[in-house]
Specification:
This protein is an alpha/beta fold. The chain has ten helices and seven strands. A seven-stranded mixed beta sheet has the order 4-1-3-2-5-7-6, sandwiched between helices. Strand 2, helix 4 and strand 3 form a beta-alpha-beta unit. Helix 7 runs parallel beside helix 8. The longest helix is centred in the N-terminal third of the chain and has 17 residues. The radius of gyration is 20 Å and the shape is globular. The chain starts with a helix and ends with a helix.
Length: 339
């Protein structure tokens, strides 16, 4: 997939429309729905947001940092227009009266919210399997060649797509179907059938597994997760995407339903480190609604040009525990190759 910078450049130069980008994400979401990455999807609102974003691009004025970029948000972030359930019976039907600070900051910069992603209930888990909506399934080992539950063949294979220059076809014209479709909610039994239980599938990691799968399957370009003890980094490693846990206090927790207040951190999942830095630049900074956020003046997050970085000058430390005799052969060989 193209990175955020490339997509934004295409949007600005009219080589890509915000509506086409949004529609492609919606179609990708539908094709991969058996992975159970989302618990709620707002097609109609996303299309309206994309239409407004395109109008802004057409005018060439007041283009924001993430104008027209589809995002997904873990279901433990408060959102006013979409249910926030934490994948729990306790919060089914709950619509918060406000957006979490990080969500609002993304929306203020033009991001398009595709929906809320599946997770371990109240973020308590590391596999994204403890959810009332059923488990999140890893796309890299899922049998896409099998028939989906509605007997329609799913033609998307993340492994094949990853070998293409871009795994998303942005050129398609937006469809007018389902233009009046309201927010869709996954029910407790939607993706949990007897046949599913017998299929061979692998966990996505957790507790932000839904966000990791959403990014891996290109139903959004960036997703928010939450990290207490690895809940962003764990699923990122399982699903082959970038997962970043910012330093505690760098990003506001206001509106993030807590697991452990003193350890929870809003995290970012994306395809590249550059994309992660771009999103961090939007959501980081002091928040009056979260007293634990740093008050120091915020410095913009601008990464250097990768082509100008000489890795030969890097010094990498390897913990002795990774080179001990009890380490696996493959791990030892990998470390030997690095050194």
């Amino acid at each position: 997939m193209q990175n955020l910078k490339e997509v934004l450049n295409q949007l600005k130069t009219n080589h890509l429309s915000a509506e086409a980008l949004c529609e492609q994400c919606i179609q990708r979401l539908r094709k991969t729905q058996d992975l159970n990455a989302y618990v709620s999807v707002s097609d109609s609102k996303a299309r309206r947001q994309a239409q407004k974003a395109q109008q802004i691009y057409n005018s060439g004025k007041n283009i924001r940092k993430l104008e027209g970029i589809p995002i997904a948000v873990k279901d433990n972030y408060s959102t006013t227009d979409i249910q926030t359930s934490c994948a729990s019976h306790m919060l089914l039907g709950y619509h918060p009266p406000y957006n979490a600070t990080v969500v609002q900051r993304l929306l203020d910069q033009g991001a398009i919210l595709m929906g809320k992603t599946n997770m371990d209930e109240f973020a308590m888990g590391s596999g994204s399997v403890n959810s009332i909506f059923g488990p999140v399934k890893n796309p890299w080992k899922y049998p896409f060649n099998k028939k989906t539950q509605n007997n329609q063949s799913s033609d998307y294979d993340v492994r094949a797509a990853s070998n293409k220059k871009t795994s998303m076809d942005y050129s398609a014209n937006p469809s007018k179907n389902d233009s009046n479709q309201e927010t869709q909610y996954v029910t407790e039994t939607d993706h949990v059938t007897e046949s599913d239980q017998s299929q061979a599938w692998y966990v996505s990691g957790g507790s932000s597994g839904g966000s990791a799968v959403a990014v891996a399957t290109a139903s959004c370009l960036v997703a928010l997760g939450s990290d207490t003890g690895g809940s962003v980094r764990n699923p990122a490693s399982y699903c082959g995407v970038v997962g970043y846990k910012p330093t505690y206090g760098l990003v506001s927790r206001h509106g993030l339903i807590p697991l452990v207040n003193s350890m929870d951190v809003p995290g970012i999942l994306s395809k590249t480190v550059d994309d992660t830095a771009a999103v961090l630049d939007v959501i980081a900074g002091h928040d009056e609604l979260d007293s634990t956020t740093v008050t120091d003046p915020r410095v913009p997050f601008n990464l250097p040009d990768v082509s100008r970085i000489d890795i030969k000058s890097f010094h990498i430390g390897i913990p002795k525990v990774l080179t001990c005799t009890t380490s696996s052969y493959s791990s030892s060989q990998s470390l030997s190759g690095i050194s």
